[in-house]
């Protein structure tokens, strides 16, 4: 038996991480794939737990060697999902959640057409701006870059079979859980 891959994407600051953490609490049988990134760890983040933190040279080497099922650049940093992160878990019958960028979700649509792709949308662009400012992890230039990228990502939401609007956390998690349980 093999597991299902759930791709959860949406703009930076939309609340993907919070929704996924809550979903995993409700559905402990799901596993979260740990992405790789070239960005520096934020306070409290650990290598191999929150991300696989790679330098640019290592990331390039792994791209060339075909170690990623998807990879993308976002806000000047690169992110990707290691093939080894997925293949082992799926072969063991575990369902896996990927928290990835829209570029990566598009790649997964091509390479893994059976993956369930879910787009998380904010209630408004202004709400997204307030969330990005409120989390306090980026300077204003980074926030503006993220918002520019978010506009393009929001235009892509129709490419996804499922769209969850993250206005009220409990309702959004409930909708996400219904989609996952129904797959």
From TrEMBL:
It holds the Pfam family Guanylate_kin. Keywords: ATP-binding, Cytoplasm, Kinase, Nucleotide-binding, Transferase. It is an enzyme of class 2 (transferase). Essential for recycling GMP and indirectly, cGMP. Residues 3-181 form the Guanylate kinase-like domain. It is found in: Cytoplasm. ATP binds at residues 10-17. It catalyses: GMP + ATP = GDP + ADP. This is Guanylate kinase. Its main location: cytoplasm. SMART domains: GuKc. It comes from the Bacteria. Belongs to the guanylate kinase family. One of its GO terms (molecular function) is GMP kinase activity. CDD domains: GMPK (cd00071). Its EC number is 2.7.4.8.
């Amino acid at each position: 038996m093999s597991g299902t891959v759930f791709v959860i994407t949406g703009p930076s600051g939309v609340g993907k991480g919070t929704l996924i953490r809550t979903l995993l609490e409700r559905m402990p049988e799901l596993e979260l794939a740990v992405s790789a990134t070239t960005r520096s760890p934020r306070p409290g983040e650990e290598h191999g737990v929150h991300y696989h933190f790679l330098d640019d040279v290592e990331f390039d080497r792994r791209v060339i060697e075909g170690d990623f099922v998807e990879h993308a650049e976002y806000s000047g940093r690169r992110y990707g999902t290691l093939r080894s992160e997925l293949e082992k878990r799926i072969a063991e019958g575990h369902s896996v959640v990927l928290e990835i960028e829209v570029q990566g979700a598009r790649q997964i649509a091509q390479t893994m057409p059976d993956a369930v792709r879910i787009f998380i949308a904010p209630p408004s662009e202004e709400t997204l701006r307030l969330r990005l400012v409120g989390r306090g992890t980026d300077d204003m230039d980074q926030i503006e870059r993220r918002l520019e990228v978010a506009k393009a990502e929001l235009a892509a939401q129709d490419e996804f079979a499922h769209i969850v609007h993250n206005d009220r956390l409990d309702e959004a998690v409930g909708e996400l859980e219904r989609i996952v349980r129904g797959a």
